[in-house]
Each structure stands twice: as C-alpha cells, then as structure tokens.
Specification:
Elements: H1 8-33, H2 39-63, H3 71-100, H4 104-118, H5 123-136, H6 139-165, H7 179-185
Helix pairs in contact: 1-2, 1-3, 2-3, 2-6, 3-6, 4-5
C-alpha cells in the first residue's frame, strides 16, 4: 500500500485557516469580555501560534513518514501556515476596526497613553508620540501590519519548532525514479 503524498501548500492553507480562526476567537473573546487590549490576550496569541504550528508540524510529519520532514520543510510549513493565518486574522482586524467598532483605535491610543504615563514619561513626549501614532493607526494599515507580525512571529517560532519536529525519511530513495521507470513513462 503506497502512502499518499500530502502537499505542503494545501496542508499549510488548511492549518493556516485553523490558526487564523483561533486568533480571531481569542481576539473576539477578549473584545466581548471588555478587555480587548489585555496583556494576557497578547501572551495568549504567542501560545496559540506556538501550539498551532507545533501541532501542524507534528501532524504533517506523522502523515509523511516515507518522505520525512527535513528542517527546511518544517520551517517552510510553519511560515506558510503563519502567512495564511495572518491574512485571515488581518481580514478580521480590518472588519473589527472599520465596521464593528470604529472607535476602538481611539480606545487603543488612550490605553497606550495611560501605560506611557504610568511608566514615567512626560506629558509632552507622550502627546508627540501619540500624535505620530495617530497617522498610522488606520484599519487598513493595522491589518496590513497584522499579516507581517503574525508571519514574523510564526517564522521565529518555526525556526525553533522545526528542530524538534524534523524527521528523517523512512525510505531514503523516496521520490527518486529509476531509469527503468523513466524509460517506461516516456
């Protein structure tokens, strides 16, 4: 019985969907609870990304035992999953900030102001900093940045996770066709 080859692209799209949905549910839960800018929500994002990438790499390695999963494939898989998850999460972020809660950007700026003042920064410095932030705090730019931040985090975590989930091929000649097979196929 020949084992079915699982495409990295198809697999990463599917698990990127799962990762994006998990990130959306996390954001939505904290938004509904009234704590959309909680530090705990930010830490939970890291846990979701690490857990999602780890589970996806483990599953992919388990499904592809014949061909194995070298470090480069594990790294590429994790990064692609992060790209697709980031795109989905960015789409949700745009919808949230543009249509569902347009005043949320102002709330975010006020939370940033409180944190900066609590850290001991002077009022004039905080006002200048927030003034510069306001120009870049639009739903479109924030969504665009979301894709890059999730992808970057996923890449960094995949660098580490790929060490643990790389797997040697059971069949060292997987994918190598013999001369007889090439002759028969032509």
């Amino acid at each position: 019985m020949e084992q079915e080859h699982h495409s990295v692209n198809h697999f990463s799209m599917m698990y990127g969907l799962y990762l994006g949905l998990a990130l959306i549910l996390n954001q939505l839960a904290f938004y509904i609870a009234g704590y959309p800018f909680s530090d705990f929500a930010g830490y939970l994002v890291y846990v979701i990304i690490i857990g999602g990438l780890g589970y996806a790499m483990w599953t992919f390695a388990k499904l592809n035992t014949e061909e194995g999963m070298p470090y480069s494939r594990a790294l590429g898989l994790g990064t692609l999953i992060s790209v697709f998850g980031g795109i989905l999460f960015a789409f949700f972020t745009y919808i949230l900030y543009k249509f569902i809660e347009p005043g949320m950007i102002e709330k975010m700026l006020s939370v940033m102001e409180e944190k900066l003042l609590a850290q001991g920064y002077k009022d004039d410095f905080v006002e200048k900093m927030l003034g510069a932030q306001k120009t870049y705090m639009t739903p479109g730019i924030m969504s665009f940045a979301q894709v890059f931040s999730v992808t970057f985090m996923g890449f960094i975590f995949s660098l580490i996770l790929a060490i643990f989930f790389k797997k040697e091929a059971k069949n060292p000649f997987y994918g190598v066709e013999s001369e007889e097979d090439e002759y028969e196929n032509s």
